[in-house]
Amino acid sequence: MENNVLKYFDNSFNTTESIDELEKYILNLAVRGKLVPQDLNDEPASELLKKIKVEKETLIKKGEIKKEKPLPEIKEDEIPYTLPNGWKWSRYSDLFNFVDYRGVTPKKIASGIRLITAKNIKNGFLDINPEEFISEKEYTNRMTRGFPEIGDIFFTTEAPLGKVCMVSFPNNEIITPGQRIITFQPFSKELLVSKLQMFIIMSPFMQKYLYNNATGMTAKGIRASTLKQLAFPLPPLNEQKRIVEKIEELFNITKRLREKLNESNKQIADLGKSSLHHLTNSKTQEEFQKHWSFIENNFDTLFNDIRNVKSLRQTILQLAVQGKLIPQDPNDEPASELLRKIKAEKNKLIKEGKIKKEKPLPEIREDEIPYELPDGWEWVRLGEVSNNIHYGYTASADITIKEPKLLRITDIQNNKVNWDTVPGCKIKKEDIGKYLLNERDILIARTGGTI
User: Fold this and answer.
1) How many beta carbons lie within 10 A of that of residue 359, not counting itself?
2) How much of the chain exceeds pLDDT 90, in percent?
3) pLDDT at residue 110 tops 70
4) Residue 62 contacts by C-beta under 8 Å, 6 or more apart in sequence?
5) The model's pTM
6) Are strands 96-100 and 181-186 parallel, antiparallel or unpaired?
7) What is the pLDDT of residue 7?
8) What does the DSSP 8-state code read for residue 15?
9) Would you say the C-alpha torsion 191, 38, 243, 117 has a positive or negative sign?
10) 299: left (phi > 0), else alpha (psi -120 to 50), else beta?
């Protein structure tokens, strides 16, 4: 079946976004009872809830969990849609004991007991990167609230809200959940398929439901007390098992689709990289045209990924500086003549006292030349074509001063400047002329993370 489905889905689900949407659709069908057929012989969820209630009361009598104030019955206006026969709307507090680790932020150390934070919780799996650890003493203090076990669910209450995964122990390590995680512990692992509840929380319906009941403006969060009261659908036990089996079967197909897509994208990326390499290293115009024709005819395929677009831009600039981007015209005045005219202009500015005469720059040596230029081009030093190359002004930025603006390295992003965020500075009037920027000046960030 899987291979047939893959062939059927190949053309329809050939992007990451479309596969994401397919998985959301599967989960939405599951949460509404439309993913697998109902079986009239299944014991209804109403009976299941009675049995789970007995298990819960047993745990209370044993002192393993605390008795809480009963929550009200689910009202008609809380029910978002009609469930199939045998299903029942329920509250999380009917099925799970909540272990909440919020409180004082644990002190992190280089190694020790692995701390699971909200960043480690991905939808459907636990990712141990990034790694954080706490001391055994800190662990002992925290775990008085309860230990996570296989079959429990980790749920993130904020930053991000609503991410879930089943509890696992990477490399059989001891773990402890962090502040923004609640552990859902089922009152009975035999009467409840926890993994289905994980899938239900992952569904678009439930994600929207969570956000609608969350608080906060910039970062949405939800309280444990609110979570306990939320209504969610509960199928009969046997149907829970069938739904999980079907979701896993379909998600295995979407996983294969992702792997196939990633492999295809890698091959296209490699082909694009190879095509650009051949283009850049073409020895003749005929060879260049051959490689360019291939790129042009397959442009949309080769450059449908941002990584390839970046490589394409770099190649365009490289071709430009090598004189391979456009054809040469033998009628153009050569750069050697252009340099003579620029030199004449420079001498004129020196005579007029507008710029200072500087020591002549040395001739460009053979070992300085990185590649051969086309006819008519010349290697030149920046000092020969610029009348003033100098450092910028050193001063403290002041957002209360509007002018003159003090352009900082951090203000230059992606070869652009957002002048609205550039602060001002104090400078003496006699120094302004030395540092003032003019149209068509070129700025280079000469230090820092990016030149």
Assistant:
1) 6
2) 53
3) yes
4) none
5) 0.70
6) antiparallel
7) 53
8) S
9) negative
10) alpha
